[in-house]
Amino acid sequence: MSTLSEAWAYLTTAENWTGANGITTPTFDGGWRFAQDSIIALTLEHLWMSFAAVALAVVVALPLGVFLGHVRKGGAVTVVTSNVSRAVPTLALLTLFAASAIGFGNNAVILAAAIFAFPPILSNAFTGMADVDPDIREAALGQGMTRFQVATRVELPLAVPLIAAGLRTAAVQTVATVPLAALVAGGGMGVIINTGLATQRYGQVLAGAVLVAAVALVTDGVMARIQHAATAKPLREAAAATA
Amino acid sequence: MDAPDNPWLSLDYLERNWDEVSEQLVIHTTLTLQALAIAFAIAFPLAVIARRAPRLSSPIMGVSGVLYTIPSFALFGLLAPFTGIGRTTVLIGLVAYALLVLVRNIVVGLQGVDRDVTDAARGMGYTPMRLLLQVELPNALPSIIAGLRIAAVSTVALVTVGVVVGYGGLGQLMFRGLQSDYRAQIMTATLLCLALALVLDLLLALAGRLAMPWARRRTAA
Question: ABC transmembrane type-1 domain location, by residue (chain A) (predicted)?
Fold first, then answer.
């Protein structure tokens, strides 16, 4: 019971949200970083790291998946990557990066999270493009569209629902992975949990866990909205009919 | 860099620390298997209930979907104040995640059984229990095995996060390797994790083949 009230006390103390020195603190070399004692700053940092990781994965995986799906080659490769990536422990990647030239800190975490966000985006983009009805492609080609036009004007719009679903999986998974950053001296909301564990303030651990879960759920909700909005109405109805 | 030699791979490390490495490997393996067994024992009845009572299926699926978005790091942290530091906490967390994967796959598998087949069995006078065990279960087996394989592989990866509460199996080695900047320790633990996931995946695939002789015959034909 005391843990619950401790957590409540932690969450309702204004100082914990703003920190002693505001959102950012100066570093020794004249730069700045997010304050480690402020929930708001850590949340912002968490969102920034997640966004950077997903963006990085999207830039590489989306064009690749769309292209491979369009030419319908490399299906086996995408399946193997997504299966193998599930077996790689996040902690292993984080510690490997931290011990290598990439070093400690947020950049290593962003890179690791991007690698984990890569497979769902790739495989969904591939499946979305490759599963477009061959008759539709034939019809578009028969109407005199070039292959590029078929890819961008016919296949891509039809693949959008699956691509959006892949982005959603990747985003939520990334938000849920970034807390591990605290173990390799990175920032984000994991810091709240990690500090709590280290100082045996379990109320703070509980508060941090609730906050991270809340951010993950909100992300999922926002991404679901985006997925819904990105899906054309007829496709939405078709999906509802099969589900 | 004039630091002492710090190789990524070192047989020397493995030889000198075999006792510790094998101990963590055993912990890792038993934790994974235990979590899978417990999760399956809970997931199967849940999935059957979800299948039999459609009104319960969306809450069961919904709750498992929500639980899955809770970060593992947070979950272990969340449990720690209540169940303490150590094996129980990690096991509960692992079971929770494996459960979600398994329930989904078992429900999908059971729903995929051809209605005509179940109707025929019912017409032949099969009791609900016999129908479940002799008709629905074998037909849903491919999906169940697929779910078990995903759950096994992701559980192996997840055990490492148990390091948060001081019981992470091979994750323990990774974390300590990081703290002491000992690359061979991290790499060895990582490779062992991957190997363990691969072996479990292969064993489950093999078990699936043995349990479904009809599927084998079909692909051979």
Answer: 47-223
